[in-house]
Every structure is written in structure tokens, then in C-alpha cells.
Design a protein that fits this description.
The chain has a domain at about 5-85 and about 125-145: Arc Repressor Mutant, subunit A (Orthogonal Bundle). It is built from seven helices and two strands, in the order αααββαααα. The protein has helices spanning about 5-20, 25-35, 40-50, 75-85, 105-120, 125-130, 135-145, and strands at about 55, 65.
Length: about 150
């Protein structure tokens, strides 16, 4: 799975909003806190607002805040708002692909991969990240031998 810089920045900004509590946070404050280019972040926050994940107010008392409680916003919600579906193959959803011959089982692999991504990204919420208490299933996966090792070229 590859996350775009835009999705990474959106996740970091949303976590920062969740950590800020009930108050409004300006785009400039978010950009500074997470070292994100301010103009880029403004466009990302607009996407998150259009997706109903954040709200905003203009003016001297303006800023951004989460549209729902942090417990109700998953990482998958944010990624989908920014990058679209979690898994696509050549821009298509895996259930819409049609493989023939020996490659036919590949579609099942893509469906399983998407299910695995969903199992993690839909379970982990902004509240989990702010509290530092990740779900046990996620912690167990991260503790598996080799989980932290890069596999380059293979």
C-alpha cells in the first residue's frame, strides 16, 4: 500500500485536531505543528471539510475542528476522503476486474488485500492515536517478526 503525501498530511492534521480537544485550530497552527506546507494543507483541509470530517469557521475566532468525535473517525475515512478507495488496480475497484486463464485467482488476492487493509484502517480511529492506545490486533501485527524490516527488491 502506498499513501500519497496528501493522505499522510491529512492524517497528521486530523490527529493534531483530535489532540487539540474542542477548540478551533488554524491551518497555520496545524501546518506549523506537523511541519506541513501551509498552502498544501489548506487544500487538504478543504477536502476534509467537503467530506464532512472537519468543520471550519472564518474570521478572527476561526479555524478548524473535527466534525465528529475522534472515536468516530477512522483512518480509512480520512484516506478515502483524500485518495479515494483504499485499493485500486489500474484505477479500478478489485471487484470490477476480470482476469482470465491462469491469472483468474489474482482478483481474489486483491479482494483479500483490501479486506486486510480495511480490517486495520477502519478499526483505528483518531482517538486511538491521540491516546496512544492502539487496538490489540494492530499492536500484535506490528510485533510480528519482520514487521519493522524493509524488504527491498523482493
Amino acid at each position: 500500500m502506498r499513501l500519497s503525501a496528501r493522505a499522510d498530511y491529512a492524517l497528521r492534521a486530523a490527529i493534531e485536531l483530535a489532540a487539540s480537544g474542542e477548540g478551533h485550530v488554524t491551518a497555520e497552527q496545524l501546518a506549523k505543528a506537523q511541519q506541513i506546507p501551509a498552502k498544501f494543507l489548506e487544500a487538504i483541509l478543504t477536502q476534509l471539510r467537503r467530506a464532512g470530517l472537519v468543520r471550519s469557521q472564518r474570521g478572527p475566532d476561526g479555524g478548524f475542528w473535527l466534525a465528529r468525535p475522534a472515536e468516530e473517525i477512522s483512518l480509512a475515512d480520512i484516506i478515502r476522503a483524500i485518495d479515494g478507495p483504499l485499493l485500486g488496480v489500474r484505477g479500478e475497484r478489485p471487484e470490477n476486474l476480470g482476469y482470465i486463464g491462469a491469472a483468474e485467482p489474482l482478483q481474489t488476492v486483491w479482494i483479500a488485500l483490501r479486506a486486510n487493509e480495511r480490517a486495520i484502517l477502519e478499526e483505528v480511529t483518531l482517538a486511538h492515536l491521540v491516546s496512544g492506545a492502539l487496538p490489540e490486533s494492530v499492536r500484535k501485527l506490528a510485533e510480528l517478526p519482520g514487521s519493522w524490516e524493509a524488504r527491498l527488491g523482493r
